[in-house]
Amino acid sequence: MNRSLLAAAIATGILCGLWAGLAPLVGLSIWAGFAGCTAFFASGKPGLKGVGLTLATTIVGVGTALVMIWLGDIIGAPAGTGIAVGLIVAVIVLMGSVPWLAFVPGIFVGCYSTFAINADWQLLIASLVAGVVLGWLCQLGGKALAPLLGAKPEPQAAAVDAA
């Protein structure tokens, strides 16, 4: 068995279990936090670069959803909702050309999580931020545990993670 993968699985399991138990105690959404954590890993960027990219894109995604809701209300449902969604989704795709927003799936995670949490954007942003940090801590925990399980260091991994 790949010992680095085993280390990542153990660290992620422990930290995500702690998150699921503690998030409600501090008034955060377990599932929105997992959306942020998942977006961090899906970004493909390790370390602080991944944290920054994921925070930027998911939070911009929350804003795009709020604009969709606002435009839909102004134009009038159901046609207004369709027009607002169509326009803003096109804008989201175009945002991918901006370097700090190049992770378009992160924008969609923030956007559609807003609808799932009934537009409670304050709760969502706090939970997404905590979830992104959770993802980063899972990554760090796996890397710290790997040598203890006898995993061999990966060449150039330190240079990539520091970037």
As a whole number of angstroms, the C-alpha radius of gyration is 18 Å
Give helix and strand order, one letter per element, not per position: HHHHHHH
Which structural category fits the helices and strands?
mainly alpha
Number of strands: 0
Q: Let me know the largest β-sheet.
A: none
Strand content: under 5%
Q: Roughly what is the average pLDDT, rounded to an integer?
A: 92
Low-confidence stretches: none
Total helical elements = 7
Gross morphology is elongated
Please explain how this structure is put together.
The two termini are 29 Å apart. The protein is elongated. α1 runs antiparallel to α6, α2 (30-42) runs antiparallel to α5 (104-116) and α2 crosses α6. It has helices at residues 3-22, 30-42, 47-75, 79-95, 104-116, 121-145, 157-162. The protein is mainly α and 163 residues long.
In brief, what are we looking at here?
The chain has helices at residues 3-22, 30-42, 47-75, 79-95, 104-116, 121-145, 157-162.
Task: Please describe the topology of this protein.
Layout: H1 3-22, H2 30-42, H3 47-75, H4 79-95, H5 104-116, H6 121-145, H7 157-162
Helix pairs in contact: 1-2, 1-6, 2-3, 2-5, 2-6, 3-4, 3-5, 3-6
Q: Which descriptors apply to this entry?
A:
elongated; 163 residues; mainly alpha
